Structure formats: structure tokens, C-alpha cells
Amino acid sequence: MSRLNIILLIIIAAIAATASSALFIVNETQQALVIQFGEPKRTVDQPGLKFKLPFIQDVIFFEKRVLSFIPDEGEEAILKDQKRLKVDTYARFKIVDPLRFYQSVRNEIEARKQLDTIVDSALREELGLRGLKEILSEQRNSITKNIRDQVNIKARTLGMEIIDVQIRRADYPEVTSQAIFARMISERERIAREFRATGEEEAQKIRASAEKQRVVTVADGARQSQEIRGAGDAEAIRIYAESFGQDPEFFSFYRSMEAYKKSFNQDDTMVINPTGDFFKFFELPSN
Asked: 86: domain range?
């Protein structure tokens, strides 16, 4: 290869290197900041092929799309009613001023750290003016709007715009939750004891009423039995009286038979004159 060809190749390579250093492409989802020796020179927010001074200028690209920001941990806030609440939030933001963004926070990592502090401060301030019922009600949208507006005031000084701030979850801290659960358990146990005591009282009333009814029923049955037995005995006496009145001799015989039956079935020893009236029906009839 001749020296001339070598020189031409070197010139072409130098031109290519210069061109590649002088040209850059901005995508539709990007915006760029041209810096020279660390100093910002201009911003580019339109997509396409762009030019810069070769070798002495560099390009830093930033997202033009909406970005999400989710804190690593929920923030604990004290409400107006002095209750503690652990709140998880998320935010969406855009880089609207690449120059200011670069001068303030340099990159997205630092931007998210700044947003974490700003959102936390605005969240505490707004929730400190609210009660739990407001956070759980339809006023929640206005609360998040106020937080977004407060965050936006500081975010614009960093070259960002906050599109939205939302509360993902609101919970009591672990210690508070355990205390609430303990109170709930205690309350349920108290209600259970009241129900058991009420049930036992009703059971005692039912048992007492049943026992009273049983005693009354038994007493009524005994009374009715005595009345029926008395009526039966009276009727039997009446029938005996009518029967014996018609035949006194048979009545005397029947009474003697009953007396014999009761006397002779005993184990006692009796000494009785056999010629007395008691044994008159044992005598042979006279002709």
C-alpha cells in the first residue's frame, strides 16, 4: 500500500471519527442536554439527528416519558386525632426542564432521593390536618391532590413536574395494630361472656318455670287422684249401705268374714273364747 493511500485512510478515519463525535440521535422518548467541559450549553427536546461540537461537547440523555416513583418503605404520620398511620404512596413525574434537572439533581437516582424527602414532608403536613375518617372517605382524592400540589412547588425548582400522587395503602403501625387486635379480642370475649351469662339466666328461668309447672302438675294430679279416690270410696260406701240395708243378716256375715280375713292372716297369737259372738258363724246351724 502506498503512502498516499495510507494518508487517505487516515484522513477518512479522522473525518469519520469527527462526524461520529459531532452527530447524535435523540429518540422520541428522550430529551438531551449538550454540555461542554461540564457546563450545560443547550437542551434538545425534538427527536432526530442533531449536531454538536466534536470532541469538546458531550450529550446527556433524559427520559421524556412519565416516570414512576415508589418509596421503599411506608411513611408513618401522625393524624389530627393523634393516631399514628403508616402510609404507602407512589408518584408519577416528568423531567420538564433538563437544564435545571441536571443542575439540581444530576440524575434520576438523586432525583428519586429528593422526591422521597419532598413527598414525605408534604404527606406528613397534609395528614397532620386530617382525621382517619377523612382519609378513608371520599375526601381522599382532595387530600392526594393537595399533596401533589405541595410536592409540585418544590419539584419544579428541580426541573420536574409531579403528574400524580396517590396513597396506595394506609395501615396502623405494627404495634398499634397488635393493640387494636388485642382490644378487639377482649371486646369479643366480653360480648361472649355477656351472651353466656344471659343464656344461663334464661336457662335458669326456664328450668325454674319447668320445675314450678312440674310441682303444680303433680299436685293437681295428686289432688284429682284423692278427689277421684274419695268419690269412689263414697260411692262404694253408698252401694254397700244400700246393699246391706236390704239384708242386715248378710251385712253381719260379710263384716265377720272381713274380720276373720284380717285376723287369721296375722302371725300374732290370740286367746279368744270360741263361744263368743266373734265365732258365731263357725257354729253349726241349729235344726
From this structure: 67-171
Sign, CA torsion 263/264/268/272: positive
Q: How many distinct structural domains can be found in the chain?
A: 3
Confidence band (pLDDT; 50, 70, 90) for 247? Answer: low
Q: Are 123 and 151 in contact (CB under 8 A)?
A: no
Chain segment 184-195, per-residue pLDDT in tens: 888 888 888 888
Contact criterion met (CB below 8 Å) for 13 and 5: no
Same domain as 158, residue 72: yes
Which residue type does 149 have?
D
Q: Which residue has the cell 435523540?
A: 26
Instruction: Please give the pLDDT value at position 64.
Output: 94
Q: What is the reported pLDDT for 277?
A: 60
pTM for the structure as a whole? 0.59
> Is residue 202 domain-resident?
yes
What are residue 43's phi and psi, to 5 degrees? -110, 150
**Does a structural domain hold residue 242?**
no
Inter-residue contact 63 to 32 (CB < 8 Å): no
Same domain, 81 and 133: yes
